[in-house]
Amino acid sequence: MGAPFPTADPPAPGEMARSVRTVRDLVRQHSTRFERAIPLIASENLLSPYAKELLISDLHSRYAEGLPGDRYYEGNEQVDQVETLCLALAKRLFRCSFADVRPTSGTVANLAVLKALTEPGDLVGTSRLADGAHISSAGFGAFGLRGVKPVYYAWDPERMTVDVPRTREILRAVRPKTCLFGLSLFLFPMPLDELRPTLEEIGARGWYDGAHVLGLIAGGQFQDPLHEGCQVLSASTHKTLPGPQHGILLGTATDPELEKKLQSGAFPGVTSNHHLNAMAALAVSLAEQLEFGRDYAARTVENARALAQALHDKGFDVLAPSLGFTRSHTIAVRVEAEGGGEAVARRLADAGVIANKNLLPGDRSPKHPGGVRLGSPEVTRVGMGPREMERIAGLFDDLLHRGRSPEEVRAAAAELKSGFTTVRYCFAAGEAAYRYYDLVGCEPA
User: How many domains does the chain have?
Assistant: First the structure.
């Protein structure tokens, strides 16, 4: 026999217990930080108590490859019922005939669509990263992984949307097989109605990445892509739709063969087990969206526009002022005069305001962009309104224009946030004073 395989050195007494305590302490520090901060990341949101409960249920430990009633594992009777209900809720919420809730993230959902709709070497229409596209449509993202080649739309930086006349010319000249519409910096609806005749003319399928605006679509506050010419909608489920970090595919019934391809793209294409705990949490989130989503979506957009106007009034370069800044949950602010996106995002985080640097039209470096992206989903979820958006704009002004220290602004941010730590727009669970940022579980020994 040869030498035994090497193993890790045995831990010292108590060493691993200390590691467990360290991890738990760090997560508690993180939770405390966000409880006291103003969270403005456009791609983040909060789960409801009932949805959060399901993430730590026994479903977390189980497998259910396949579709309800046709599994590769036993013991899935209740899972099948949950998933069947989840699918029915999704179809009802989005007024569509096809849904698949097995993708485990928005990017995984995009990969499933790419597998279903494209072959390596195909041309696919999309937007550039600097114009707001998501990294999954880049050569170093899902597009590159599938081996498809992007065809970039012309962009109107003043209106922060696709330039329709020039894009029509591009599509007719190049004739991509599929056209993706959807952004990571998503301020305004895509011109689907205007481009639909061109897609039909060249025989291209319309595909919509609704990750950022899924809850706004459901709540009637944004365009409805499945009824404006797109055959497929892919999305994550944790942004304006305040569900778990998961993915979803939606579609119309115009092509049964396409539905089979999408299902195959999801499994076995890009998923095995589809995180049953998150799927169950998504079912709860979809039900809550049907109950509370219209009001929540309206308040989310109202808050985004109020924050944009307040920042504009304080001298910040908020994009698209002539169009009301935004029709979604997101606003874009060019902050080159304040030091650039990277420096500003760091200064804000030090002061208890959590945002992210972001490419804007004309930027060349994703690591050193000229802008920051701000979103209203989470502050709306905890009950803030236009009055609080004015106060948040004041924090920006104090830090970036008036020279107040990060410590002073952080204290003001914590004071503002102290009245808003209870999740709203959902069914109540337990005490009415449920605090979202509390951890669930026992204390460490």
Answer: 2
What 88-95 contacts at long range (C-beta under 8 Å, 24+ apart), as own/partner pairs, is 89/283, 89/286, 89/287, 89/290, 90/248, 90/250, 90/286, 92/290, 93/218, 93/286, 93/289, 93/290, 93/293, 94/217, 94/218, 94/226, 94/233, 94/250, 95/224, 95/226, 95/227
Query: Could you tell me the CATH number of the domain that includes residue 246?
Result: 3.40.640.10
What is the four-CA torsion angle of 344, 307, 126, 271, rounded to 10 degrees? Answer: 90
Is residue 23, in this structure, part of any structural domain at all? no
Q: Could you tell me if residue 324 is inside a domain?
A: yes
Three-state DSSP class for residue 155 = strand
Euclidean distance between CA atoms 243 and 138, whole angstroms: 26
Cβ-defined contacts of 162-165 (< 8 Å, 24+)? 162/127, 162/190, 162/191, 162/195, 164/191, 164/194, 164/195
Pair (193, 333) in one structural domain: no
CATH number, domain of 397, equals 3.90.1150.10
Q: 439 falls in which pLDDT band (50, 70, 90)?
A: low
In-domain check, residue 423: no
Model pLDDT for residues 6-51, shown as the tens digit of each residue: 888 899 999 999 999 999 999 999 999 999 999 999 999 999 999 9
| Segments forming the whole domain that contains residue 384 | 293-417
Closest CA to 134 of 7, 262, 42: 42
- How confident is the model over 178-191, as a mean pLDDT? 96
Residue where the block lists tokens 């999740």: 423
What residues are paired with 144 via a beta bridge? none
Percent with pLDDT over 90 in the chain: 87
66/16 Cα distance (integer angstroms)? 38
187, two tokens: 């301020």
